[in-house]
Amino acid sequence: xxxxxxxxxxxxxxxxxxxxxxxxxxxxxxxxxxxxxxxxxxxxxxxxxxxxxxxxxxxxxxxxxxxxxxxxxxxxxxxxxxxxxxxxxxxxxxxxxxxxxxxxxxxxxxxxxxxxxxxxxxxxxxxxxxxxxxxxxxxxxxxxxxxxxxxxxxxxxxxxxxxxxxxxxxxxxxxxxxxxxxxxxxxxxxxxxxxxxxxxxxxxxxxxxxxxxxxxxxxxxxxxxxxxxxxxxxxxxxxxxxxxxxxxxxxxxxxxxxxxxxxxxxxxxxxxxxxxxxx
Amino acid sequence: xxxxxxxxxxxxxxxxxxxxxxxxxxxxxxxxxxxxxxxxxxxxxxxxxxxxxxxxxxxxxxxxxxxxxxxxxxxxxxxxxxxxxxxxxxxxxxxxxxxxxxxxxxxx
Lengths: 279, 108
Fold this sequence. Notes:
A: mainly beta; 3 domains; six-stranded antiparallel sheet; B: 108 residues; mainly beta; four-stranded antiparallel sheet
């Protein structure tokens, strides 16, 4: 009888290959589109060098300022030329992006966007050009259906670049990972202690590797195995439920870190899972 | 206990719909690998690949398969096969013919 853990996994919202960094940064002069989908607090994973960062500023379409996270020994100093990267949005979900094409008081007008398909009242709008933010209070039509946002503050003029996002909503989905037929739940030997391996008792060597955003520089011995322990506990709990309860929601594990080098957006929240690979 | 999803899919001729059973026993995880492909990884390292006709941004296809799998596993042992209609497919009310069935189901 199959049982599964429901694990919240962040969606990959962007990928690419880094060009030469200009500090502790991710630079990508090839795609040049960071302002269209990246917000402060996003997690960047250098998949070539197995290093993680948090975005501290969206400097431009080609540069993200970063703060390295994870164990001191595994922290990077900027994403090197040629490294592949993935970007995750753990706090906010981007709903729309564009350029205002008219000026009207307390309105954001972009006739190329149907805001009604993705935006709702209460969403936040960043005026990237002006460097200020406001909130959506309504949607109306100027030229094309739902092409105008009514906003709380009169900040937009034609030509302003904007991004709309839903605050405090991780861009994630629930992934089912089998919790029955397990052989072992163990920390892997990864340099940044950010992976847990679930191995199965099948005929082959099938296993699932879960990667999460470990942020602390010097975790205690207990903290180093906290995720492995939490997943083991969840596996046990899932197997104690009735057979009709096929899935068990992983209750999460709080990242207790408040050290000075830890990214503020990650401390004292649940750890974010950024990958699940079964092989 | 065996459980299956019964999924409409084009046959090898590429023209005829057929209902194919895909096992949901011992599936370790479901992953959307592209806008049209979902893989089911089995505990014996076999992998079934479902290729959808309609491109859909990840992870929506995988989530739809997961949901179908979860619902099917909640049913009693006499309910062996559960219908799964792929995202993007429609069924003609009079003929029952499915438009946009899966393009293929492969296992390796």
